[in-house]
């Protein structure tokens, strides 16, 4: 386990030494990895760092407002509304890896523009150890690993937490006194709600996933899951009032894990599951069914795509 205090001191010194008087950019998603990396870099080089938060339209409920508040101490923070751009680009795309590819491409374009505008020579990334392992193993392409450096001619890439596991990054976040909404935040995938919507990403499906995820996060807080969320997995018949409806099927997933490489489905009590089901189906007219996923990783992955 990393010793937070000396690690932070050393990381700040290293970033200062590497970036010097140059400018840097970081994609700040609000996840613990990018938040810690951005905070370390901000402490090292101040407003020479431009943290860029891209609202892809695939973010959690209330995420953008939360970011604006939490990182208000960073004067150079840029919030980019790119919702239409991402959702338009995803129209008609159904293959999971192709979805990641489209999102990665759009993301690169947006960040590239910001990097040019701010004259950034360095890219700071919140890559952690498991991201590198899974990408190298070809299990899944994580869009926060690779891609960007090939397109934008950065002088250097700075990855202050590249050798750490998620729980170690959380330790740093606590030591850096980041708010607990950040330090204790569940992992959220780079492609966002797009991987919590099976098949084509539409505004309607994303909205269902966003609201359902919010309900699940609220209801399962006391279980302290490593990750808990809802996904839109298909359509099925139901009855609402006197009508038969062909509504969305929402899958609820809650897992324990250390690093996301393996995970165990959590055992939840019936009342909790029923409360989740009832809130989701009553709040969302177009949802006809809620199921709970009992599969561990392996053989399933944590996300649905
Ligand atoms: P899986 O679904 O592969 O997820 O079992 C393992 C962990 O990684 C997250 N995840 C992603 N993170 N880009 C990311 O930045 C991605 O494309 C991606 N896919 C999965 C997932 O949420 C879990 O924490």
TrEMBL record:
Domain of life of the native organism: Archaea
Q: Name one GO cellular component term.
A: cytosol
Q: Does the keyword Ribonucleoprotein apply?
A: no
Q: List the Pfam families.
A: GMP_synt_C (PF00958), NAD_synthase (PF02540)
* Gene Ontology molecular functions: ATP binding; GMP synthase activity
Q: Which residues hold ATP?
A: 29-35
The reaction(s) annotated as catalysed by this protein in its Swiss-Prot or TrEMBL entry are: XMP + L-glutamine + ATP + H2O = GMP + L-glutamate + AMP + diphosphate + 2 H(+)
Report the EC number(s), separated by commas if there are several. 6.3.5.2
In terms of HAMAP family, this protein maps to: GMP_synthase_B
Quaternary context: Heterodimer composed of a glutamine amidotransferase subunit (A) and a GMP-binding subunit (B).
Spell out the protein name for this chain: GMP synthase [glutamine-hydrolyzing] subunit B
